Amino acid sequence: MTQTLAFDKPKVELHVHLDGAIKPETILYYGRKRGIALPADTAEELQNIIGMDKPQSLPDFLTKFEYYMPAIAGSREAIKRIAYEFVEMKAKEGVAYVEVRYSPHLLANSKVEPIPWNQAEGDLTPDEVVDIVGQGLKEGEQAFGVKVRSILCCMRHQPNWSREVVELCKKYQQHTVVAIDLAGDETIKGSSLFPGHMEAYEEAVRSGIHRTVHAGEVGSAEVVREAVDTLKTERLGHGYHTLDDQALYSRLRQENMHFEVCPWSSYLTGAWKPETEHAVIRFKNDQANYSLNSDDPLIFKSTLDTDYHMTKQNMGFTEEEFKRLNINAAKSSFLPEDEKKELLDQLYRAYKMLPAASGQDP
């Protein structure tokens, strides 16, 4: 029986992590195949151990990856498969276009720097990881009819990786990669300003690489300001605490900054306190430029529909608002202009809308 979706028309998703969107069955398969111990023997048990049911802290959330990443990291076959299966997952969710992000270094096993789930050195480089993910995504595109592009993540706690990340963005621009991101624990004070990250983003600006940054999820409005003014980000991952600085928020609204909002994620990571009004309600009421996204559906035991259902049932979102935010997501995507126009035309047709009726124009 087909699941009834909260919004059953084509959607655009801009903020979802590949390593947080893996099927539990695939983790189990590669754990057994590679002889790597996992904390459960069935997909259901594994999902319950990895998954979150009630709010925790962002650092608690980040430790979840240590349970299962040993089964995937360093395996060419596993990495290609999770990329392919990711596209299949998005097809089932009614997604027309998605930008999926990941850290090439955290999926490789060839770096000297310690990675919690892969201490041993091996021969799978971050460069090869990007190539393999691109292969899996392209095969998934062909099989499932979802347009997919990828974003490469720098990690706040590893600024010495960032220069290589931007070089990989440049190298693989024709192989699905469209942007650079900065992810990880934003409570590391001043991490936006670490030289490695700043140099990478300066090179991204020089080279015409698109830029997004996780900022203002649990960090202060100052982290958002650093992302905008120093790293020259074009979009904000989460961005909720922008609202703590009304002057900054007003400025970013005028500049039409895009906020990549992940409502269910923000509940489970403690980034949003349920006794307060969620930032996305303010974004909606202000007709701001934002999108709805699933972030890490494996850990949040969710699908993209979870976020649409949450906002529809609990926050008064309408189908018209869903149309508006998806049009804005398409306009704020990192596609080239000709491909962006094709995507927008596809949405206008599906929504039975004229372009002029699409709401705010990024």
Automatic annotation (TrEMBL):
The keyword Transit peptide does not apply. Its main location: other. It is found in: Cell junction; Cell membrane; Cytoplasmic vesicle lumen; Lysosome. Its cofactor is Zn(2+). Its EC number is 3.5.4.4. GO terms for cellular component: anchoring junction; cytoplasmic vesicle lumen; cytosol; external side of plasma membrane; lysosome. InterPro entries: A/AMP_deam_AS, A_deaminase, A_deaminase_dom, Ado/ade_deaminase, Metal_Hydrolase. It comes from the Eukaryota. It catalyses: 2'-deoxyadenosine + H2O + H(+) = 2'-deoxyinosine + NH4(+); adenosine + H2O + H(+) = inosine + NH4(+); cordycepin + H2O + H(+) = 3'-deoxyinosine + NH4(+). It is an enzyme of class 3 (hydrolase). GO terms for molecular function: 2'-deoxyadenosine deaminase activity; adenosine deaminase activity; zinc ion binding. Coiled coil: none annotated. Residues 10-348 form the Adenosine deaminase domain. It is a peripheral membrane protein. GO terms for biological process: adenosine catabolic process; allantoin metabolic process; alpha-beta T cell differentiation; amide catabolic process; AMP catabolic process; AMP salvage; B cell proliferation; calcium-mediated signaling. Keywords: Cell junction, Cell membrane, Cytoplasm, Cytoplasmic vesicle, Hydrolase, Lysosome, Membrane, Metal-binding, Nucleotide metabolism, Zinc. Belongs to the metallo-dependent hydrolases superfamily. Adenosine and AMP deaminases family. HAMAP family: A_deaminase. Interacts with DPP4 (via extracellular domain). Interacts with PLG (via Kringle 4 domain); the interaction stimulates PLG activation when in complex with DPP4. This is Adenosine deaminase. The gene is ADA.
